[in-house]
Amino acid sequence: MIAIGGAIGTGLFLGAGGRLASAGPSLAVAYTVCGVFAFLVVRALGELVLHRPSSGAFVSYAREFMGEKGAFVAGWMYVLNWATTGIADITAVATYTHFWHMFTTTPQWVIALIALAVVLAVNLISVKIFGEMEFWFAIVKVGALLLFMCIGIYLLATRQPIDDHIPGPSLITEGGGIFPHGMLPMLLIVQGVVFAYAGVEMVGVTAGETSNPEKLIPKAINSIMWRVALFYVGSVILLVMLMPSGSYSASESPFVTVLSHVGIPGGDGVMNLVVMTAALSSLNSGLYSTGRILRSMAMAGSAPKFTAAMSRTQVPYGGILLTTSICVLGVGLNYVVPGQAFEIVLNFAAIGVLSTWSMIMICHLLFWRKAKAGLATRPSYRLPGSPYTEIVTILFLVGVLVLMWFDEGPGRITILALPLVVVGLVVGWFCVRSRVEAIRKAAVGTQGSSSTD
Questions:
Q1: What are the pLDDT digits (tens) for 202-235?
Q2: How buried is 36 (Cβ within 10 angstroms: 0-12 exposed, 13-18 middle, 19+ buried)?
Q3: Least C-beta-crowded within 10 Å: which of 15, 87, 92, 267?
Q4: Residue 204: how many CB atoms within 10 A of its CB?
C-alpha cells in the first residue's frame, strides 16, 4: 500500500490541472513516457534491494559502489527532493482548504503550518502509526480515483452534457487533437510529470523495515506499471474526454473541477477532501524517508550527529526534525508569494528527483559491472536490458534537465540556481570529510580486529 501511495500524490491530484490547460491531451503521452522510465528506476532499485536490503536505500548503495562522496551527494539531493516536495505538499493542502468558503479568509501560510505540524506529530510517535496512516491514505486515494473513473465512464457512456459539452473523444478532436498547442508545451511540462512520479522509490526505503523483502518488493514493484497505466494515463484520458482541456486550471484539482460541473451534491467537496489527504500522505512519506536516509548518513558522518538520534519507538526524530525545519521555509514562501509557491518548489523538487533517479541507475550500472566481473551475484529479480537500460534512462533524465532551461519561468530559475546547489555540496563535503574518514577507518579497524579474533 505504501508503494501505491507513493505513486499517487500531489503531482497528479493538483499538478495535472495546470498541465492539462497548457498541454492538453498530450499530457497522457508525457505520463506514459515518464512512467516507463519511473518503472525502470524502481526495477533497478528493486534488484539492489534484493542484493542487500537496507533502510538507507540508494544512499547505502551509493556508498557501496561510488564511495562516501557518492553517498553524500545522493543523500543530500534526496533530502532536497523531499524537503521541497514537502513544501509543495503543504502548499497544496493550503490551496485545497481554500476551496471551502469558511477558510478563504485564513492566510495560506497558516494552513500550511498547521498541516506540517499535524504530520510531524504523527511521524514522531512511531513507525507503526506512520504505516497505519499511510495504509489508510492509500486506500482513500485509490478508492476515490476508482470511484471518479466509474463516474466518468458512466458520463461517457450516457453522454451526459457537462457545461453544454457532450463527453466523448470528439472533445479531443474539436479542441485541436492530442497536441493542441504543438509538441513544445508537452516537452516543457515533462519535469512536472517526473515530479508526479516522485515517491515510487519509497519501495526501496521501506524495504529495510519489511519482514520478507524477497517476496514483497518484486510484487510491489511489478504492480507499478499497471497503476501508471490506470491511474495516471487512464485518468488523464478520461478528464480530456469529459471536459475541454482549457476548462482546467492550476489553481484547482481537475477531479474537483469535473465534479463541480456535473451536479453531484457535495461531490466536489468530497473529492477535494480526498486530494487533500493525498498531499498529507506525500508529506507523511517524505518525513518518514528522509528521517531514515539522514540517520544512515549521520552514522557514516555525512549528516549532523543529531540526525542519528532514535526514539524509544524506533523513530529517527533528529532527521525528521531537520527536514521539517526546511519545510518551515515553505511556510514563509506561502506567506511571501502564495500564488507562485507551488510552481517554484515543484521545479526544485524535480531537480531532486532527477538526481535521485540518476544515482539509482548509476549504482545499478556499477553493480552490473561488478557482477559481470564475478565480484557480485545478481538476484533472480533483475532490471532487464542492462547495461543499455541504465544508459538510456540516464540520458532521458539529462534531457529533462535540458528541457527545464527552455521553460522561461521557474524552470530556468531552477537551472540557474544549480551552481549554488553544487557549491553547497562541495562546501558541505569539505566540512564533513574528516569525520567521514575517521568513522570509515574505525569501521575498517573493527572489522579487521574481528576477523583476527
A1: 776 666 666 777 777 787 777 777 777 788 888 8
A2: middle
A3: 267
A4: 28
Whether 188 contacts 412, CB under 8 Å:
no
Query: Per-residue DSSP letters for 323-367?
Result: HHHHHHHHHHHHHH-TTTHHHHHHHHHHHHHHHHHHHHHHHHHHH
> What's the pLDDT tens digit per position in 404-450?
888 777 778 788 888 988 999 999 999 999 998 888 888 766 655 44
> What's the alpha-carbon Rg for the chain, to the nearest Å?
22
**CA 337 to CA 94: how far, in whole Å?**
13
Q: What b/e sequence results for 150-186 when a residue is b if at least 16 CB atoms lie within 10 Å of its CB, and e otherwise?
A: ebbeebbeeeeebeebebeeebbeebeebebeeeebb
Q: How wide is the angle at C-alpha 286 spanned by C-alphas 443 and 196, nearest 5°?
A: 125
What values do phi and psi take at 374, rounded to 5? 80, 15
The dihedrals phi and psi of 165, each to the nearest 5 degrees, come to -110, 135
Report phi then psi at 162, rounded to 5.
-125, 110
Cβ–Cβ < 8 Å for 52, 313: no
**Reduced DSSP (H G I as helix, E B as strand, rest coil) percent helix, strand, coil of the chain, to 5:** 80, 0, 20
d(CA 256, CA 261): 9
User: Within 159-266, where are the H helices?
Assistant: 170-174, 184-188, 190-196, 202-206, 213-222, 224-227, 235-242, 254-259
| Phi, psi (rounded to 5 degrees) for 285 | -65, -40
d(CA 220, CA 203): 8
CA–chain centroid gap for 16, Å, is 14
d(CA 45, CA 41): 6
162 SS3 class: strand
Give the whole-angstrom CA distance, residue 86 versus residue 320.
12
Stretch (H or E) spanning 115: helix 108-125
Return d(Cα 183, Cα 176) in angstroms, integer.
12
C-alpha cell read off for 378:
545478481
This prediction has a pTM of 0.84
Half-sphere exposure of 417 (CA within 13 A, CB side): 14
